[in-house]
Amino acid sequence: MFIKTLTLLLTSLLLCGPLYAQVLSGGETLKAAIGARQAGMGEMFTALSGDIHCQYYNPAGLADLASPVITSMYTSNIFENQEALIAGGLPVSWAGPGALAFSLVNALGAKMEINHLDGTSENLISQNDYLATLGYAQQFFPGFYVGANIKVLSSTLVEQYTATAVGVDLGILMHDAVLSGMNIGAALQHVGSEIKYDNEGDAMPTTLRMGIAYQRVFQQEHGLRAGVDLLFPNDSDALQHIGVEYAWQSTLFLRAGYKLGYDLDTFTVGGGVNYQGIRFDYAFSGFTAGGNAHRIGLGYSFGIDSSGASE
């Protein structure tokens, strides 16, 4: 009954997705790219699984987490904004394969000069956000997963105005749908309370994600993952994310992506190394205005993961 209700909810929201474009929203931290691996693939990850950062794209993908893992990420860009993350995940088997995940993100905006009426001025941090997320995913039957997150956002503007909001994410994922190696996923993200500073509030940036991905291994040492995500945000027109990842012996990785519907941050490239459970990832995001952003990820998996998927 739960699976049927969730599937009907996601399907009906997909049909209504374009209507969201008329709603204003806040919470830019909720939209940020999480995971250097995912950023390098153009944030195309709704239909992939087994990675701790599935929590930020489709929590259902957490169910394939192969072993306990911890990971971190640091981001900086030309606007002097910074973002740091620490996350951990643990496979569980309470009612079949599943996993728990927790993460904490700190997004720090650049300093800005505030001029007061008395002629004085001061430099204040433009924005300081903390986002805590707890996720759980479960396999209901082979090849079909369901997951959910609960998240708490605490945001402070110019060191004076604060807001706290609570939201949830829901996701489903199907492996080997239609043909072997093809996955289909859907997630409804950022459903929750208003982000309200003082007396002014914005809706959460509720987004419906739909994705399709294909993955295949060639000659036992070459791996390929590719796919497309379609996003229906409540504060813009539909967006498309295209990404690809090549893996050699589940050790060396090359990635590329392209995002349609954005004014900035359209193309991405990246790479990674996975050696004896230690994983390093890097992603570069190019801006059409001539700047760029860099993301660095470092993680450790407490077990052998032959797929190279887990961070």
How would you describe what is shown here?
- The structure is a single chain.
- This protein has one domain: Porin (Beta Barrel).
- It contains 3 helices and 18 strands.
- The chain has helices spanning 2-16, 28-31, 36-40, and strands spanning 69-77, 82-92, 98-108, 111-115, 121-125, 127-141, 144-157, 161-174, 182-192, 195-197, 200-202, 207-218, 222-233, 239-248, 252-260, 267-275, 278-286, 292-301.
- Strand 15 (252-260) and strand 16 (267-275) form a beta hairpin.
- Mean pLDDT is 85; it is low at 1-25 and 305-311.
Beta strand %: over 45%
Radius of gyration in whole Å, from Cα? Answer: 19 Å
Could you tell me the CATH topology label.
Answer: Porin
Give the C-level CATH assignment.
Answer: Mainly Beta
Quick take:
With 311 residues, the chain is mainly beta. Helix content is 8%, strand content 55%.
Task: Please supply descriptive tags for the structure shown above.
two-stranded antiparallel sheet, disordered C terminus, 14-stranded antiparallel beta barrel, 8% helix, single chain, mainly beta, 311 residues
Set out the fold topology.
Elements: H1 2-16, H2 28-31, H3 36-40, E1 69-77, E2 82-92, E3 98-108, E4 111-115, E5 121-125, E6 127-141, E7 144-157, E8 161-174, E9 182-192, E10 195-197, E11 200-202, E12 207-218, E13 222-233, E14 239-248, E15 252-260, E16 267-275, E17 278-286, E18 292-301
Antiparallel strand pairs: 1-2, 1-18, 2-3, 3-6, 4-5, 6-7, 7-8, 8-9, 9-12, 10-11, 12-13, 13-14, 14-15, 15-16, 16-17, 17-18
